[in-house]
Amino acid sequence: MTKIVSALTARTQFGQLMRRAKQKDERFVVDRRGEPQVVIMSINDFIKTIAPPPEWLKAIWAESKRKGTDKLTMRQINAEIKATRKQHARSGRS
């Protein structure tokens, strides 16, 4: 169920609203002077309901999960990219 919060409440409790949206998939409609202005929702909720991923992306995610690469940190991903680029440069590929 979507909850309506005032702009003042959203401004003063933004961190808490973000946390609740992310952890509990709660949605908040922020209104100003009685008129709805924006919606606060988690990115996962947004993807599921508003912008579902195409099948090819779901396949990539499934393969990543199968290989265990879905748990890599950004630092590990960047290291992999750097190593691959270095290997390609040594072999003369672009």
Tags for this model:
94 residues, alpha+beta, YefM-like fold, 3-stranded mixed sheet, 3 strands
How would you briefly describe this protein structure?
The chain is built from five helices and three strands. It has 94 residues and is of the alpha+beta class. The relative contact order is 0.09.
Task: Provide the fold topology.
Elements lengths: L1 E5 H6 L1 H11 L2 E6 L2 E6 L2 H7 L5 H13 L6 H18 L3
Parallel strand pairs: 1-2
Antiparallel strand pairs: 2-3
Counting helices, strands and paired strands, the structural category is: alpha+beta
Care to count the β-strands?
A: 3
- CATH class category of the largest domain: Alpha Beta
Element-by-element helix/strand order:
EHHEEHHH
Q: What is the radius of gyration computed over CA atoms, rounded to a whole number of angstroms?
A: 20 Å
- Could you tell me the strand content as a percent range? 15-25%
Largest sheet, if any?
Answer: 3 strands, mixed
